[in-house]
Write a structure and sequence with these properties.
Layout (H helix, E strand, L loop, with lengths): L1 E5 L5 E9 L7 E5 L7 E2 L1 E3 L4 E9 L3 E8 L3 E3 L6 E4 L5 E6 L3
Antiparallel strand pairs: 1-2, 2-6, 3-4, 3-7, 5-6, 7-8, 7-10, 9-10
Protein name: 1,4-alpha-glucan branching enzyme
Keywords: Glycosyltransferase, Kinase, Transferase
InterPro entries: Ig-like_fold, Ig_E-set
Length: about 100
């Protein structure tokens, strides 16, 4: 799931990426172009039984991302705004910050 929070007075959007706990055995990281393609661990949130990662991104842009589960399995977010081939035979999810 992806939640976006647009600010009236800032040129950025708070984006929260969320993956259900049931999709993960031990760990999950988000890997994205806005992170220079370096995995960033997602935080386990017991109350919502999910893993979350929150970031502020520039408005009016588009970013590629995927999730890496247990350091071996790639998954996409079914709630991504679009998908784009990544050159490795799979697709990356796209998140848009256009309002």
């Amino acid at each position: 799931m992806i939640n976006k929070r647009f600010f009236k007075t800032k040129d950025e959007v708070e984006v929260t990426f969320e993956v259900a706990e049931s999709e993960v055995d031990q760990s999950i990281a988000i890997v994205a172009d806005f992170l220079d393609w370096k995995p960033a661990a997602m935080k386990k949130v017991a109350k919502s039984k999910s893993y979350k990662f929150r970031v502020r991104l520039p408005k009016d842009s588009q970013f590629e991302f995927r999730y890496l589960v247990d350091n071996e399995k790639w998954i996409n977010d079914v709630h991504a705004d679009h998908y784009q081939p990544n050159g490795f035979g799979d697709d990356n999810g796209l998140v848009s910050t256009y309002q």
